[in-house]
Amino acid sequence: MKIPLLSHPAKPEEENPILPEAGENVNITDNYENGKKDILKSRISKKPVGEGGSAHSFKTRLKIRRDVKTCDRPDSDSEEQEPVDHGKNTVNEKIDEILKDYLDTEYLLPELTEEEIDWVVERYWLKPPFSYVKIVKNWEFDLTYTIIEPKITKEELIVLEETYEYLRTALVFDSPKPKGDLTVDPEFVRKAIKSFNPSISDERTDILIYYLQRNFTGYGKLDPMMNDENIEDITCNGANIPLYIFHRKYSNLRTNLVFDNIELNKYVLKLAQKADKQLSLTTPIIDAALPTGARAQITYSDIVSSKGSSFTIRKFKTDPMTPADLISIGTYDAELMAFIWLAVENNKSIIIVGGTASGKTSTMNATSFFIPPIAKIVSIEDTREIQLPHENWLAMRTRDTGISATESDVDMFMLLKAALRQRPEYIIVGEVRGSEAQTLFQAMNTGHTTYSTLHAGGVSEAINRLTHEPINVPRVMFGALDLMIIQGLQFDEGHGFRRCLSINEMIVNDGDIRWNEIYKWDHINDKFTKNQKRSRILDDIAYTHGWDDEILEYNLQIRKSMLERFVEKKINDNLQISHFINELRKTCNR
């Protein structure tokens, strides 16, 4: 029996503008928001001479990011700019050179201050050629997420505000579309800008279009973050406090964005409006689903949050995590994933357990790729996160009107009862928290294959949560649950990573719940070990198909080899992976 060959055409990489040099980390003017204050900022950075130099010996460079050509970079063979001398005349000459570009803005340059240099760890584009991000490290070795956007002049700011007001009238009040569905046609906006200032260049017009799209249909100063696929969570804890993010590579990072009190109150109201939710002094806290699919928890004023308005936005990947992705980042290895593959394919019910940000939903989505392609699937979630390549899949989500009267609300319990009437073969519940868990276990006991996630630290904690208030699942019902997968967010020298901590088979005798730990993560060697020679799940699968131990092992190994080949050839496209999984299933069934 041959494993289907894996091949896929290489996707051409889009050419983005060259990122600024590592030293170009300071703006002469602030971005759009601070531009309203008519401030022109400048900065001198200090840099060590080298390893052989004294700790107090520095060369000073004036870091410049040009007003107009932030993305027009010199060729690689161009000469490096010589360090600026500490001499007063040299600095004044450099200031005069800078001011040549700003003679018409009537900006005043404040007194220059010397600041410690930040080492650039990584830079990448967010929306080329307008915005990019720098991950920088300061002298205390703290990492900061710094957003860089084009600068605008005072005259351009006036044009921007006038065009913005015009668009509000033209696109909101005169359009039958809801505001969340509005789009900004660049050519339409270009004509509007030219009508206010015909002399503005095309290059500067493109920058103003960027800000108009960012502020009108996007998320304002948070828009670059919302476009960053590396960000999972965005947190604002209150006014005049830097925003924090959870980065897929660097974990928790401080950012260079801050809201003042008035600005923050306006912003949270805008977020609520985007989600079609009512946020006010009488309803100061809401949970919302944003148009991008992100989930937001928002508070207004200082009624429930002592530091004022706050919000947390949880983003989700545009492309779902696949089994190959989880293996590539080390959350699972191919052997564990092959075991889960065989279990899912043979209708074994699974609950994935873990703490916050442990990747439970990503794992559930990835393992759902192993569901047979024609099986009927119903998924139930608060916010749409599950993304499957299956056609015979009905995705349902809850509805919370936010009004005290609950007649119009649709919760998970109602959706789960409705799903059972549709004769699904697989039921996927985003997360069980209340009475819907009892219905989920009833579905297991009536022959439905179910997958769900649960917030808990381990197997015993999960069982305690499920069997006590407010969930109260009878212990005898646990006999229908086959596997409980424990997943966690681990840290090593400040960097976070996710690992499957254990895979456990559930065993119930007369209400006594026990479990066998089949696989366990070795945290010292960062490897997965098999604890049990025999598996009840595998024995049951072998008995159903009439396999002996040799055929069972072959079915595990052929799936393991397929997964390893996915990783080796860097195949992570969900449709391609689904295709190869189905082809292997057909091959094994012949």
From TrEMBL:
Entry-linked SUPFAM superfamilies: P-loop containing nucleoside triphosphate hydrolases
Name of one Pfam family that matches: T2SSE
UniProt GO molecular function: ATP hydrolysis activity
Region Disordered, residue ranges: 1-30, 69-90
Occurrences of domain Bacterial type II secretion system protein E (ranges): 286-468
Gene3D superfamilies named in the record: 3.30.450.380, P-loop containing nucleotide triphosphate hydrolases (3.40.50.300)
PANTHER family for this protein: TWITCHING MOTILITY PROTEIN PILT, TYPE IV PILUS RETRACTATION ATPASE PILT
Family named by the database record: Belongs to the GSP E family.
Protein known as: Type II secretion system protein E
Species: Methanolacinia petrolearia (strain DSM 11571 / OCM 486 / SEBR 4847) (Methanoplanus petrolearius)
